[in-house]
Amino acid sequence: MTTALLTHPDCAGHLTPPGHPEQVARLDAVLSALDGADLVRVTAPLAAEDDLLRVHPRAYLDSIRAASPAEGWAALDPDTYLSPGSVAAAFRGAGAAIRAVDMVMAGEAANAFCATRPPGHHAERETAMGFCFFGNVAAAAMHALDHHGLSRVAIVDFDVHHGNGTQNLVEDDPRVLFCSSHQMPLYPGTGEPADTGPHDTVVNVALPGGADGRMFRAAMEREVLPRVDAFAPELILISAGFDAHADDPLAGLRLTEADFAWITGRLCDLATAHSGGKVVSCLEGGYDLEALGRSARAHVDVLIERGTGG
After folding, report:
1. Quick check: 191 and 202 in contact, CB under 8 A?
2. Is pTM beyond 0.85 here?
3. Partners of 43 in the β-ladder
4. Contacts of 189-196 spanning 24+ positions with Cβ under 8 A
5. Catalytic residue among 122, 162, 245, 299
6. Is 14 a residue of the active site?
7. Which of 3, 58, 225, 261 has the smallest set of CB atoms within 10 Å of its CB?
8. 294, 246, 248, 250: which is closest to 130 by C-alpha?
9. How many CB atoms lie within 10 A of CB 294?
10. How many domains in the chain?
11. Residue 121: domain span
């Protein structure tokens, strides 16, 4: 079996103003780092409207299209900009996640990594925010449940920022376990550990600024991995944000590439135990280009090793 890499040139068509941290160079850094890796490269399709309607209302999709500018940028909030190519890029991001689920469920790949932008985990049901437009991972989870007939899907988000959008989109469905580790206090100001969702299927792990890999690993071992194990997911989805890296300029955690490789391996262990190794990972944050590239490669190298039976 192999690891699939899903991406599309359209994702470079989402342009942000000069100096914006969510820039085209992020995707270039990831893809350059993965050059030469033993991956099956797959062209990410556009998401079908019905797939996005599982997590966003039609009026919201229409509003995003309507806000798309003919040139320049349209600001949806102080951080989140549309350019003429942004809508296509956002549809490719969601389409990549959904196609990756189809490939892994069909046995066409052991696992998959979606190298797309813009990211998705801050997009709420009717609100674009935090660089995000559509809930890519949430849409993939709902597709797995409704299209593939799964009963239990786990999402693990180790981006340095709380995955408020993903939580907003999945917490009402008891078939989804959502776990987020994140620095607190930090944008977007959500993700208190006491917030466990209406069905007790939300696990929020708040880490203080300056927390290092030892603290991250201990929190994962204590709070996230046992919950995922007990949930026995038939598929694990990862929101792979690498902005908890010590070199990242937007936050203050102190993780290294080794920590990202470690959590990837531990999640793969759980996937092996419960789902035949089925894992789909989607790129979220990461804003120091060199650290982002190294971290993404460390993450994907573990997926490749596990996908080939290592």
Report:
1. no
2. yes
3. 7
4. 190/162, 190/164, 191/162, 191/163, 191/164, 191/167, 195/167
5. 122
6. no
7. 58
8. 250
9. 19
10. 1
11. 3-307
